[in-house]
Automatic annotation (TrEMBL):
It is found in: Cytoplasm. SUPFAM superfamilies: PLP-dependent transferases. It comes from the Bacteria. It is an enzyme of class 5 (isomerase). Keywords: Cytoplasm, Isomerase, Porphyrin biosynthesis, Pyridoxal phosphate. This is Glutamate-1-semialdehyde 2,1-aminomutase. Its main location: cytoplasm. Homodimer. One of its GO terms (molecular function) is glutamate-1-semialdehyde 2,1-aminomutase activity. NCBIfam families: hemL, PRK00062.1. Belongs to the class-III pyridoxal-phosphate-dependent aminotransferase family. HemL subfamily. It comes from Kaistella gelatinilytica. Pathway: Porphyrin-containing compound metabolism; protoporphyrin-IX biosynthesis; 5-aminolevulinate from L-glutamyl-tRNA(Glu): step 2/2.
Length: 427
């Protein structure tokens, strides 16, 4: 493929935008090569500035669950835009989407809209601290909850106790309140509660992790977290920015039948426009300003275009009673058939999948936490990525990211993808 124009645009972007991109993973730093500049996207496909076409397995990192530029969502955005882009006042539409979400997601009474997943998770932690009067919280190594300071903490080796800043600019004072444990390791969480009695406000967790590749909760991990929170007076925060409305309409809470105290959303909830949200029962949400004292605000929060795109997307999902069944079936086919091809080629691998989230680890062993994900053969993933890209299959440009399958991916796209993978040269 020819990437001439992408290459020129990247050189130009590099002069004016740090690293040439507005979000780091886009820069292809881990897979190498020049990032591809897209000019349009429709259904299962994206087209780049050199007119190459790609079958899409990122879908804007999750939001485009219906595929790109769904005609009904597009129409709804256009109609809304004619009425104005942003008022900075309350609108009827905000109540409509809030009511719709509250009625469809378990264990929440109220929801507050923000403009990104980062804001949602940052605000959820503040609310948990305000509600419990405690400072510390537990997060898991390899989970990502946005780029708010207290989340950018790298785990130390061994059993983690206090975090260290892993990004310059995060102060040790902030880092000390972020406690780290390994995903799927309930003993480490028990230890943290034992050593920080009465100090832990919350546990925040990706109920299915998608930021170290796709990693599933095992051995009743989520149920056990619930139990530990109850025993210790801490809140359980499900970060459903990826999993919300993707794994089930009621998200991971519904799928695993585990009750969270606070739930955060992003991605699908905005239908491709910038949206995040956090929700909880009345007792907790009543602590939020202007009713309560925990402050949180946003100029574009509840933006009418974003609300309309989100609500239309959610309604379209809900209107098809077999939506998840079909979406999951496509993903299952990909998983099963890719596995068969890689086995025929004798390439050691593990495919992790839940619903329409999946990823391949080139690894002989199962992957259930960050260390195991990091031990996979990432050089081989990068090779796999580039060979597929060259043939028009667009995967996330990192072995530490989940793929997001959209409803626009049909049998023909899956067949084409498998045909390309059959030609994968492994040396
Ligand atoms: N939480 C999770 C689980 C995420 O995957 C992400 C982003 N990928 C975020 C939070 C942050 O969302 P945003 O990029 O919209 O700030």
């Amino acid at each position: 493929m020819n990437y001439q124009r992408s290459s020129a645009l990247f050189d130009e972007a590099y002069k004016y935008i740090p690293g040439g991109v507005n979000s780091p993973v886009r820069a292809f730093k881990s897979v190498g090569g020049v990032p591809i500049f897209m000019k349009s996207a429709k259904g299962a496909y994206m087209t780049d500035v050199d007119d190459n076409q790609y079958i899409e397995y990122i879908n804007s990192w999750g939001p485009a669950i219906l595929g790109h530029t769904h005609p009904e969502v597009l129409e709804a955005i256009k109609k809304q835009a004619e009425k104005g882009f942003s008022y900075g006042t309350p609108t009827e539409l905000e109540t409509e989407i809030a009511k719709y979400i509250v009625e469809n997601v378990p264990n929440i009474d109220q929801i507050r809209m923000v403009s990104s997943g980062t804001e949602a998770c940052m605000s959820a932690i503040r609310l948990a601290r305000g509600f419990t009067g405690r400072d510390k919280f537990i997060k898991f190594e390899g989970c990502y909850h946005g780029h708010s300071d207290s989340f950018l903490i790298k785990a130390g080796s061994g059993m983690a106790t206090f975090g260290n800043p892993s990004s310059p600019g995060v102060t040790p004072g902030t880092a000390k309140d972020t406690l780290l444990a390994k995903y799927n390791n309930i003993e480490e969480v028990e230890d943290l509660f034992r050593h920080n009695q009465g100090e832990i406000a919350a546990i925040i967790v990706e109920p299915v992790a998608g930021n170290m590749g796709c990693v599933l909760p095992e051995n009743n991990f989520l149920q056990n977290l619930r139990k530990l929170c109850d025993e210790n007076g801490a809140l359980l925060i499900f970060d459903e920015v990826m999993t919300g409305f993707r794994l089930a309409f009621g998200g991971a809470q519904e799928l695993y039948n585990v009750k969270a105290d606070i739930v955060t959303f992003g991605k699908v909830i905005g239908g491709g426009l910038p949206v995040g949200a956090f929700a909880a029962r009345n007792e907790i949400m009543d602590h939020l300003a202007p009713k309560g004292a925990v402050y949180q605000a946003g100029t574009l929060s509840g933006n009418p275009l974003a609300m309309r795109a989100g609500l239309t997307t959610l309604q379209l999902i809900k209107s098809d009673e077999n939506f998840y069944q079909k979406l999951n079936k496509s993903t299952e086919t990909l998983d099963f058939e890719i596995g068969k091809i890689l086995n025929q080629k004798s390439i050691p691998h593990r495919i992790n999948r839940k619903g329409s989230m999946m990823s391949i680890f080139f690894h002989v062993n199962a992957v259930s936490n960050f260390d195991e994900a990091a031990n996979a053969n990432h050089a081989l993933f990068n090779n796999f990525f580039h060979q597929l890209l060259e043939k028009g299959i667009y995967l996330p440009p990192s072995g530490f990211e989940s793929w997001f399958i959209s409803a626009a991916i049909k049998e023909s796209e899956i067949d084409k993808t498998l045909e390309v993978i059959r030609k994968f040269e492994y040396s």
